[in-house]
Amino acid sequence: MTTSETEPTPAVDTTTTPRHASRTPDRERENLLEVEDLVKHFPIKGGFLSGSKSAVQAVDGVSFTVRRGETFSIVGESGCGKSTTARLITRLLEPTAGKVTFEGKDITHLSDGRMRPLRRDIQMIFQDPYSSLNPRHTVGKIVGAPYKLQGVEPEGGRKKAVQALLQTVGLSPEHYNRYPHEFSGGQRQRIGIARTLALKPRLIVADEPVSALDVSIQAQVVNLLEDLQQELDLTYVMIAHDLSVVRHVSDRVAVMYLGKIVEIGDRDDLYDRPRHPYTVAMLSAVPVPDTKRRHQRERIRLQGDVPSPINPPTACRFHTRCWKAQEICRTEEPLLLQIGTGAESGHQVACHFPEEPSGPAGIPG
């Protein structure tokens, strides 16, 4: 029997001010995570006779920083490399090249043994709340697993600590002896979040944490993550493709396309004044309940399919689908450079012909 959700189910309102809109990111805040020229190529062997080799260029030169206490989101189409980036910064995958620095320490190529103590500080929330939970284990064993793996004995014992964690994420301590199949999708994700919190991490990487959930449950989990961030002083790297959810939770947003970051900016600045053509196209597809704004905004439909990451376009990888592309876009790769001043001073874009500042979601101001 499946336990039903007991909380109200408000939808994520994408037209109103996000819950933490008053929390202005401090650009002088200390960097918790620094990623520099990160690369991950997955080799592919050719046919038996050809002997040729190629590689899927999943992540190809990604750089960004994450400030302590903020939510930094990475968005993009499926296959753009955002989930691979998440696994690289949590060291679930070994980078091909580049550097990952956590709290000033280079963790790029640490061995499993030397990385183990850092697992307390860097945790991950996975996309599918069912496949990430062992169906043969009780909730108590699942949430308490990090204590066993790290050899930690919490004050008052593991059972008491696990039950406190279940309460923290909105579940009942009585769920301790139940199994994952007895819970709904949203409750399973809460179990996964409780497991993530067990060792009091500093950085949580959430890979599409609500995309597998019903729309009516997504807002509950999103709001829970925000509440936990404020209560426990957490830092998030959020991986997502839903631009509505990202706007609701983020401080800063990075847009990825075919293994590269094409734009980074403060949430409101990026959503209200997108500068890269790909970002403009993505935002033009976000549904707008306001009928007047919907008719004012131009819907941009990109031509063609996303190129293969095995053989990506030269120079600017977006030039094969971009309506602004010129010869330089086919021959010279644009660098991710700061653009604008004042409120836009933290805005970076990799484009030879960035869009001019405009109104919300590409509507001319």
Helix content: 25-40%
Shape: globular
Question: Describe the biggest sheet?
Answer: 8 strands, mixed
Distance between the termini: 54 Å
Order of helices and strands: EEEHEEHEHHHEHEHEEHHHHEE
Structural class: alpha/beta
Count of extended strands: 12
Percent range for β-strand residues: 15-25%
Strand order of the largest sheet: 6-7-8-3-9-10-12-11
What's the average pLDDT?
Answer: 86
Total count of helical runs of at least 4 residues: 11
Radius of gyration: 21 Å
Ranges with pLDDT <50 over ≥5 residues? 4-17, 359-365
Task: Write up what this structure looks like.
The protein is an alpha/beta fold and 365 residues long. Helices cover 27% and strands 21% of the residues. It has 11 helices and 12 strands. The strands form 2 sheets. Strands 6-7-8-3-9-10-12-11 form an 8-stranded mixed sheet, sandwiched between helices. A 4-stranded antiparallel sheet has the order 2-1-4-5. Helix 3 (139-150) packs across helix 4 and helix 3 packs parallel to helix 5. The N and C termini lie far apart (54 Å).
Question: In a few lines, what is going on in this structure?
Answer:
The protein is of the alpha/beta class and 365 residues long.
Q: What does the secondary structure layout of this molecule look like, with pairings?
A:
Layout: E1 31-45, E2 53-67, E3 71-75, H1 82-89, E4 97-102, E5 105-106, H2 112-115, E6 122-125, H3 139-150, H4 158-168, H5 185-197, E7 203-207, H6 215-232, E8 235-240, H7 243-249, E9 252-257, E10 260-266, H8 267-272, H9 277-284, H10 291-296, H11 327-331, E11 337-338, E12 348-349
Parallel strand pairs: 3-8, 3-9, 6-7, 7-8
Antiparallel strand pairs: 1-2, 1-4, 4-5, 9-10, 10-12, 11-12
Helix pairs in contact: 3-4, 3-5, 4-5, 5-6
